User: Fold this.
Amino acid sequence: MTELDVNSMEEQHPHRGAWLREIVFGLNDGLVTTLVFVMVVSNVASSHLVLIALGEVIAGGISMALGGYLSADTAVNIRDYRIATERLEIQNEPDEERAELRDIYSRKGFRGGLLDRVVDHLTEDEDRWLHAMVTDELGVVDETERHPVVQGLLVGASFIAGGIIPVIPFLIPIAYQQVWAYVLTALTAVVFGGLKARYTLKSPMRSGLEFFIIVTLGSLAGVIVGAILHAA
Assistant:
């Protein structure tokens, strides 16, 4: 691959988009949950549907934000504990840790004198040694992730944004409100899926279609379950 090819690839797939995980999770949940809610409830009780749906969206957004925070905070606590444990092992069991590091780089293809020099270089400084163990043994690539509060807010805000979409047709006096709720939800899934492709190796069409199928299947399953429970 030439230098031009590498630069072109970097431009097409920039090293950004880590925030997409929380956005996609919250948006998908908001779209599906609220669409199923308005589909089922509008058949049973249409009065005050908008207020009930908006209340569900806000409550769901708060719940998702808190859940996103707790999940991210737990992941950070586990990561920090594992890193602290690795530091203690380096301080108290240096021979075993050095052997582990040597084995790791041996499996990467380093041999002989080169392997010795690499291991010596990494282990002559404790912070450098720890970083090597954290990266190569624990698989932690980025130790400076977003704060759990930020991740929780991303999930909650995305849920609310996605949840408002299926409610919009019920704010307007139009016919076939349920149909329009689904259409808006599907369009949102396709458009966002296409935008998401900028940060992945998938094409916009494939990414949008994938998001559309997931949202549709999730909504269909929810509506079927709601219909069965209502008929029971």
